[in-house]
Amino acid sequence: MSRRVGDLSPKQVDILAEFRERLEDVLPDLPAQHDHYLLRWLRARSFNVQKAEAMLRKHLEFRKHMKADSIIADWRPPEVIERYVSGGMCGYDLEGSPIWYDVIGPLDPKGLLLSCTKQDFMRTKIRDTEMLRRECQKQTEKLGVNVETITLIYDCEGLGLKHLWKPALEAYGEILTMFEENYPEGLKRVFLIKTPKLFPMAYNLVKHFLSEETRHKIIILGSNWQEVLLKHIDPEQLPVAYGGTLTDPDGDPRCRTMINYGGTVPRSYYVQDNMVKVQYDNSVTISRGSAFTLEYDITTPSSILRWQFASDGADIGFGVFMRTQEGGGAQKVGDMLQVLPSERYNSHMVPEDRSLSCPEPGTYVLRFDNTYSMLQSKKISYTVNVLLPDGQTQSPRSIRGGGRLE
């Protein structure tokens, strides 16, 4: 059985009904409420209803944090990403699923990560995925059949050592993990074309981020790749450059209005080359395997908490939490309210400068996390300010006397 609508065992039908009932309190918040959508999460967790529920509820927190529902309308990637991140949606396969192209060769991962934050790169991928999800919805309405997956074509021509740069592999791994955890069962098939001799090494470095189900959808094509693509895609939906007949209105066989082919990022985009030297108010060295927390009392609702920081030589984890225990006693971060999930920031390449609206008064905890590093201490330079609703700025003092090492 395919474990899809119309092809479920009696037990799977019962599990689906239980799953829907358990999610009754959050159904209105889901991107879709139909059985097709719910079954994606059940399939991703082998119809273990408890694990599927936990996965979907965690995804809702992810959507809230990333503002996924409005990211297409309200957020635009930095110019360097729009110009130099290769790929794009172009055409539909024979079943009506959107086709997305990732063009690896021209991609300049080092130039991109020296020109924008890893988080902006991640948001761009989320934005693209949300666009594809909406495109699937449009195809469902247009064709009268459920369309919930995409065909992905990886053009590996030009894959080289520059793509195996460690920070790039780490960022790519985080993106793959994000896809697996938040957009399960979204791939129909993945075609890898024009793979060079380096490909097996590159694949071995990232395959552990992929679920077994995703790996089974990967199809590595040989020299007859155009012939195989045409078995799944109508020639009119496939660019001339990939063996079809589709061109841009001006006759471009590569369909550049739909597929970005990227290129080398000019140094004029590099943040470090253009950055005015920031004078931070404080600095601290965080030992290997340790963390450093700053606690601030926000007494005025709707204040803005702003932080700036840079790290020396390596990335650092950072997150924002809110104490739920009164009285100032010790409280573990795991027991606090998560306001901004902890992520690893490449602040040694691109300094961070962000802010957060604090709708409720309380004690906000900024946590620099180096617990994942067993070998290297990290020096962090930072400044924290609070912007009050009346527009005045204050430089708060940590109520822990300048911070606390864990």
Automatic annotation (TrEMBL):
Any one of the GO CC terms: cytoplasm
Matches recorded under InterPro entries: CRAL-TRIO_dom, CRAL/TRIO_N_dom, GOLD_dom, SEC14/CRAL-TRIO_domain
Domain GOLD: 277-386
CRAL-TRIO domain ranges (all copies): 77-250
Pfam families in the record: CRAL_TRIO, CRAL_TRIO_N
CDD domains, per database record: SEC14
Name assigned to this protein: SEC14-like protein 2
Chain's gene name: sec14l7
